[in-house]
Specification:
Length: 225
């Protein structure tokens, strides 16, 4: 039976790969990978010999139609990203939507994703939260910050290392110097760390010690008091 499997891959530590993910990747007809070179190392480590095709943000608009036809013809396909769960700030949404619209089964396996451990270990309220992913680089950035000034839920952002200090300074500007912030970097990897404090305190920390690696930032929401 044709089916699209959405398969999470480790965000750093290979031991976070699940037995089920390995089984699915070995059994499907095709694996779609964000970067076949990166994923090739992962597949080799787990002795997965399934054929791969490249599927990333620059070609996914062009490949979706053909992939849907292959699925309709009875193939099973797995989608993976470089790290974490596909479609979370990574390619995957367009293909998933096309499958749903065409009545093709979609199954997402549970597994690694960066924002969940970052939220849980932040110490910030996690009964309600909003995932913002990457902020706009220029156009719409200020507008987004102005809208988020009234957000009362914990906010989660993906931030590249070279934009971290700028982003933290914007948190101070738009949310206030005393707003609670937690920065997690290199989750599940050797140099994993989480820095917590006010927006101003965390900014000063990373001004003195520039951040490296993959970064997730959690920001406390506006107080309702």
């Amino acid at each position: 039976m044709s089916k699209l499997f959405i398969v999470p891959t480790p965000i750093g530590n290979l031991e976070d790969m699940t037995f089920r993910a390995i089984k699915v990747l070995k059994e499907v007809d095709l694996i779609l990978a964000e970067d076949t070179r990166t994923s090739g190392k992962l597949l080799k480590h787990f002795e997965i010999a399934t054929h791969m095709h490249s599927h990333h943000m620059h070609n996914e608009h062009k490949t979706v139609e053909n992939l849907v036809k292959r699925l309709q013809a009875g193939e099973t396909i797995a989608l993976i990203s470089d790290a974490g769960t596909p479609a979370i700030s990574d390619p995957g949404f367009l293909l998933t939507r096309a499958c749903v619209e065409n009545g093709i089964m979609v199954e997402c396996l549970p597994g690694a994703t960066a924002f969940v451990p970052a939220l849980v270990n932040s110490g910030l309220p996690n009964d309600k939260f909003v995932f913002e992913g990457f902020l706009p680089d220029k156009k719409g950035r200020q507008t987004r910050f102005l809208a988020l000034q009234e957000e009362y839920r914990t906010m989660i952002f993906y931030v590249s290392p070279h934009k971290l200090n700028k982003t933290l300074a914007e948190f101070v500007q738009y949310f206030g110097a005393d707003r609670a912030v937690s920065v997690s970097r290199e989750l599940s990897k050797l140099h994993e760390e989480t820095i917590r404090g006010t927006a101003e305190e965390v900014l000063k920390h990373f001004e003195a010690k520039p951040a490296k690696g993959e970064i997730v930032v959690c920001v406390g929401g506006k107080s309702l008091k």
